Each structure stands twice: as structure tokens, then as C-alpha cells.
Amino acid sequence: MKKEMTSADVAALALELSSGETSIIDAKIAKIYQPAPDEIRINLFVYEKGRDNLVIEAGKRAHMSQHIRPSPKIPQSFPMMLRKHIMAGRITFVKQYDFDRILEIGVVRGGVETVLVVELFSPGNIVLLDSERKIILPMKPVTFKGRRIRSGEVYQYPEAQISPVDAKASDLEAVFAGSDADVVRTIATRFNLGGVLAEEVCARSGVNKSEPAKEISSDGIQAIISALQDVFKPLLSGDLKPCLVKKDDKGKVKPFDVLPFELSIYSDSEKESFPTFNAALDEFFGKAAAESVQEAVTAVKKEKVDVFARRLQKQEDAIEKFGTDADKQTRIAEVIYANYIDIEQIINVLKQARDKGYSWDEIKSILKKAKDTVPAAKWIENINSAEGNIVLNLDGTRATIDIKLTIPQNAQVYYDKAKKLTKKKDGALKAIEDTKLAMQKREKKVSNKRKVSNKKYWYERFRWFMSSDGFLVVAGRDADTNEEIVKKYMEKRDIVFHTQDPGAPITVIKTMGEDVPEETLQETAQFVVSYSSVWKSGQFSGDCYWIKPEQVSKTPETGEYLKKGSFVIRGERNYFRDVQVAAAIGLELEGSTRVIGGPTSAVRKYGQHVVEVVPGKYNQNDVAKKIYKIYVEKLKEPNFVKQIASPDKIAMMLPPGESDIKV
């Protein structure tokens, strides 16, 4: 799924915001809010239209929006400073810088001109400039190589790319001659297009996208120039046809991409048209952002529901304490009766001493001297003269004795304490029953909502995970499944991962012909290393590489033999060095109900109740049982957990070798 706007998207956005019915030129700026760390919302009063909202999320999106996130109760410093400089100002222009993912919004207030620069490339920023292009205020003060985004500095643009709209044959020839990549990757990176548009240009030109760029003929270059002009014709003419591209995602049709004009590579996909590109952007990005807020609210509600579990734990702890304390008080009373005569003698001696006029200090001194000759004197640990009581140590049991009371009366004091504690225990037991009843009612409601999906997918026989970007990654479990993946499921358009060390599965990213983002490559690298002999050996990092499917062969060198599940890798390898091992287990509870495993970031994207694991000392079965118990305790639904995440199913998702649960 698309994560950020492309240069073509920014061009289309600037076109709409600066002309026609969707223009915000001359709109007056009202308040500015910061509902999320990288997001601001500018409330506008648009002439003859009324109030509207421009939402800007640095590094990702900008558009007019009807899907508004709640404003924070306490305003942050950045929007407050923006208000100081541009609130009540008028927007004078909206334009794109040099076909890059940079949007510039001109503002004038009281004759003072400023420019709000919106960087929509990663990591992104929002910067306010004065009329001399000095930085007044950046959202994120940062320093890059050759660029300082800090107050007082002159704003510098990032290194310029070649604009595909103005590119000439000589530009392509120069870039292709110095490229070590294939055509599609060279166009995507050097002409600021991104993967999807680069694929479209190759498709329209008829040039083989996988051919090395430096080998493209002059005819091929001319075909690409013509394709670039054809692709971007709608931007130059203003004839946009905004739409959402939709794809099936685990049985649900969901938006996959947002476009200012139609692309041939999506000709077979389901689409939804929109009257403006802003409306399409808002449906794609704005709606998802609003839904994420709703999910957070739901999570808070779930936390409130879990109050029953916390209450039950407190009640159970209280019962245990009441019972222990009641037993202690009863035991003290019984010890007092067991030493009835000796305690009575001690009390009588103390009373006689007081009757004779001895002070408590004198009595303490006499008792201290008598400890060697009078055995009972050794029992006295302390004398509280203010309260008129003594503390006795009776064979390890400490008892406070009031010398004004008889022995039975002293014992009764402890029996009464035990009775009060027993009553409290009975009350807590009743409260526990009430809590359990409430929990049962809640569990019944939850159980009625949760349905176990028994649908099976072909890839579940192998090791697998779904990347954060939505790409399926499959790997072999053994020699047989390694063979099966390569022979039956690996396609030319896929990407293959492996490690230099033996004992690693053949791992394939199913690209479906789409450009694979860096995050998916990083997750797959971590997956390959973590599910290899690197984990078994207890190491915490390792190396791996990716190759093209055509580099994988079952034909050995002359005189060599390949055992089952082994392959020959020929050609250049693209390495990932010192990749940290990491894995996690989670529960997928929406759509499919199943246990999932793989890189932590991917599991967190699709799973709940995520448990991270690291190389350790427990075998797979023991770790799986521990995780199973965690899920039973969290969900309070043993039958449901057993159906979707029994210990054997969890073990199937764990890395090979021994592990520990990360604390």
C-alpha cells in the first residue's frame, strides 16, 4: 500500500490548490493545530466557500481534508509560533519546487511575505521562511550533509534530481551510461519518479525494464522520452482523472494506491473515481489517519475492560493476605495460652515492682541483669512504658502483652483480630464471585463476536510472513519445501534471499510485479538471518544477500553434486551486512484468525499481543508453551486460543533452535 505522495502527486496537488474551483489562493489563515508529531492542520477561510482544512503531514501527505484528527488540549510550540507569524495572513501562491516532493505556500500578512515549505520526502519537514528565504522556524531542526535546517540559516533545497517532465535524450544518455542498475530502478531513483511511475514509463515505452540501463540503445532512450511525455501529459494539460486503485487484501477490497491520472499497469484493477485529486487524497490518506485514531480509542476502551482482570488480581491478593494474617493472630493467641503460667509470672513480677515504686527504667535494668538467672526474663524483647505493655518472643512468635489484662483477655485480643480478618476475607470472596460473574458475562460477549476462520492459504505450509508494506514472503522449512518453493512458486519478477552460511531457508518475496520498498527488504533480511543457523548457534547478527530468480540454478559445476534442497547461486549478490536477529509471535484476530511470526515490525503491523523472542536456552516446544499460556491469560478464552494458537502452531512460527522470551 502506498505510504507517501509521489512527485507527480505533488504536481497535481499544486495544480488544484492554485487554480480553478479547488484553489486556495487568497484564502485567509485562521488557527493552526498539531494533532500528531509530524502533522499540522491549517484552518482556512476560502473566499465564497467558507471554512476548510489543509492537512500537512511531513514526509507523507498534504491535501484539503474532511477527516480531522482531534486537536490536542495543550497546543504545542510549533503551531503556536506559526500562528504568531502567519495567522490572519493570506495565501498568495501554491507551487511545486522543480518537480520534487516539495510544496511551497506563499503567505502575506501586513505586507510581510513568508513561505511555508513542505518537504514530503522522507523523513520530511515543515519550514517557515522569510522573504529572503532565511529559516524563521523549522518543525524539526536537523543537520544533514550539506544542509542545515535551523533557525537563521538560509534554506537549501536537497540535491536536485532530473525532472522527468523536462528530461531530454541527452539527460537519459548521461544517466544511463553511469548507472549499474536496470532501467526501471534507474528511472525511479534518478528521475524522482518512484517505483510505480517508473514501471508505467517502461510499460508505455516497450523497453524491457530489467535490462541494464547502460545497454539501452538510442531508440530505446527515445521511446522512454516519448513515454515520459505521454505519462505526464495530464499534468501539463490539467486534464486529471483522480482515482483510487483497489485490491483484494485477505478477502477485503481495500485502497492500494491513489492516482491523479490513470496508469496502464493498473488497467485490470478495480478503481474508484473522484471529482478532485484532493478528494481522492483525503479518502486514501485522511480516512486512514482518522481510522487510526479510532483504533487508538478502541484500544483505550479495551484497556478499561481489562480492569476486571486487575480487580480480580487485587481481590485474590487481598484474600491471601487476610487468610495469612488471620492465621497469624490465631497462632499468637494459642501461644499465649500455651505459655499461660510463665507469662502470668512475668506480669505478676512487673506489677509487684511497680507497686513497690520502681520506675520503668529501673525495671528494665533489673530485667537485663536477671536474663542470665531467670529464663522467662529472656522472653522480654521490649517494654513500652507509655502503653503499659511488653513484647514477648515466645519460641519465635512475638506477642504484645498488656500487663493490665489477664492472660485470657490478652489472648482474646488476638482472637478478635483473627475474626475481623476472617470477615474481611469472606467479604473479599463474595467480591471475587461478583467480579468473576462480570468477567464471564464479558467473555461470553467477546466469545460471541470472535469467530475462528478455518480458511487455509497455500503459503501456510512454509515459513512465511507478510511484510509491513503488504508483500508476502515465503521460505522453505526443509530440503523438500526449499525444492518446492523454487520449482513451483518462484517467479521471474520475485526477489530471492539467502545467507552465506548453510542451514538457511530459500526465501522469496512475492513482488506481484511491484517495486519492493526498502522496509520490506530489511524485514526479509532479518527474517532470513533469524530463521537460519545463525539463531541456532546463539549469535545475534549475521549476513545475507538478495539475488534475482534467474541466478538460482539446480545445475552444479562439472564434477560436483547437489543434494536435495541445495542450489547453485551464480552472478552478483546484493549483501545486507551485520543484520540483527529478531523475531516475534503475534495473534491475527481480524479477518484471518491465526498465529503469525516473523520480523517484529511486520508482526506488530498485523498482529496483537505480540511476544518478542531472542536466542536463548529453551527449546521450541517449551517457549511455545510459555507463549500459549501468555495468550490464555490475556484473552481469557482458552478454547479460542487453542484453536488458533496451540503450542504446536506457535512452535511452527518460531526460529529454529533455542530461544528466550524477551523481557
TrEMBL record:
Residues 462-571 form the NFACT RNA-binding domain. GO terms for molecular function: ribosomal large subunit binding; rRNA binding; tRNA binding. The keyword ATP-binding does not apply. Probably part of the ribosome quality control system (RQC). May mediate the addition of alanine residues (Ala tailing) to incompletely synthesized nascent chains from stalled ribosomes, leading to their degradation. GO terms for biological process: rescue of stalled ribosome. It comes from the Archaea. One of its GO terms (cellular component) is cytoplasm. This is Archaeal Rqc2 homolog aRqcH. InterPro entries: NFACT_RNA-bd (IPR008532), RQC_Subunit_NEMF (IPR051608), RqcH_archaeal (IPR043681).
